[in-house]
Amino acid sequence: MSSKIFAGRLLGLDVFDPLGDRLGRVRDLVVHEQGIHSPPQLTGLLVEVPGKKRVFVPMTRITSMDSRQVISTGLINLRRFAKRGSEKLVAAELFDRRITLREDPTLTAHIEDVGLAQTTRSDWQIAEFYAAISAPKSRSVTRKLVSFDEIRWYSDELAQPASRFLAQHQDAKATELADAIYELGEKRRLEIAEAMQDDQLADVLQELPDDDQVEILSQLAPERAADVLEEMDPDDAADLLNELADHQQQELLNLMEPDEAKDVLRLMEYDENTAGSIMTPVPVILSPEATVAEAMAHVRKEDLTPAQAASVYVCRPPLETPTGRYLGVVHIQQLLRHAPPEQLGSIMDTDFEPVSDQTELAVVTRLLAAYNLTSLPVVNDSGRLVGACTVDDVLDHLLPDDWRVAHNR
């Protein structure tokens, strides 16, 4: 095993077991801070295993580590990583952090990489920093290695800017970004949330556990929180609002745009675990006179999930929920099999009965499974379409509350 290596060289490396089978990829390094007089110790690696899950691999399980590959014992605990105590993530929290140099505190220095060295006890610790250094009011930047003893230790106030963290994850999907944020401390999570655009934060919140959603939303300014709720899917926004105190619910609903608040309020009125409480209130809805070409244009919209795009519901006007009388459904396969000028009224499926908005979740689940469907139309007592239960809506409610986050290591 190499006795010295830079963290930047490890990021993205494959991790193998002793037989050469790939276990995952290094996404970050975990260090334990031991105060201002002792270098932080490397306790393990954050490894992304198949399924995009990030797990902790302690250094006691690492048998070889250099700039080409990492080899472990092959025994990996697949429980989800969560930081403990004074742990820090090197790439997520140390890179770009500002440090103060002992020789000249007026200089501005930022960490660009971290040098790790193995001690006589075979432990790994931070030995030096590759830093970008500039003088006050100077545009010139000098980059050099700075030993741990040459710096005044940093504090959380000198942490990596949230913008830098987001730039490092600019290509990440919402669920991957949610994973990365979950691994941070409460204060840091809020800093990142504050720096996000409303639509990005809405997508990420929907991928976090309920408690973390409430924590982040509750600490945002009410006006910002209302804007984020407007960007969320109405059913997810309703679920989140139901976790808040009554006075918070009312304040945020009053701050939301009336049309957005109306859809959310409708969902909040239903009893828990009914079709009405879990449905999507804005499925694709067209009149029977609409053509196949028009329907195809609607299901191509990027903001639709695959489950929502799989079905077009045919109703009498008005075409916003609650609609006029529900007539039938046209599945995407039917759209692909008919000519563009064909009217939906002539090809819709009228055999399958919609479910009532008061139908229990268990019944909805059985119907989706029995008929191999991706969604079900939901109607009220008057036969008006009020929404659709999609397979992803149902899964969200069938899985355990903490399904997005496995148990801590």
CATH H-level homologous superfamily name of the largest domain: CBS-domain
The number of domains is 4
**Hey, roughly how much beta strand do the residues contain?**
15-25%
Which descriptor suits the 3D outline? elongated
Description:
There is one protein chain. The chain has about 400 residues and is of the alpha+beta class. It folds into 4 domains: about 5-90, SH3 type barrels; about 95-160; about 165-270, MgtE N-terminal domain-like (MgtE N-terminal fold, Alpha Horseshoe), CATH 1.25.60.10; about 285-395, CBS-domain, CATH 3.10.580.10. The protein is built from 17 helices and 19 strands. The longest helix has 11 residues, at about 260-270. The protein is elongated. The model has no long low-confidence stretch (mean pLDDT about 90).
Core attributes:
409 residues; alpha+beta; SH3 type barrels; MgtE N-terminal fold; 13-stranded mixed beta sheet; 19 strands
Outline the fold blueprint.
Blueprint: E1 4-6, H1 7-10, E2 14-16, E3 22-32, E4 41-49, E5 53-58, E6 62-65, E7 70-72, E8 87-89, H2 90-94, E9 98-101, E10 108-118, E11 124-134, E12 142-147, E13 151-152, H3 162-168, H4 174-182, H5 186-195, H6 198-205, H7 210-219, H8 222-231, H9 234-242, H10 246-255, H11 258-268, H12 275-278, E14 285-286, H13 292-299, H14 306-309, E15 311-315, E16 326-331, H15 332-337, E17 355-356, H16 361-370, E18 375-379, E19 385-390, H17 391-398
Parallel strand pairs: 2-7, 14-15, 17-18
Antiparallel strand pairs: 1-10, 2-3, 3-4, 3-8, 4-5, 4-11, 6-7, 9-10, 9-13, 10-11, 11-12, 15-16, 18-19
Helix pairs in contact: 3-5, 4-6, 6-8, 8-10, 9-11
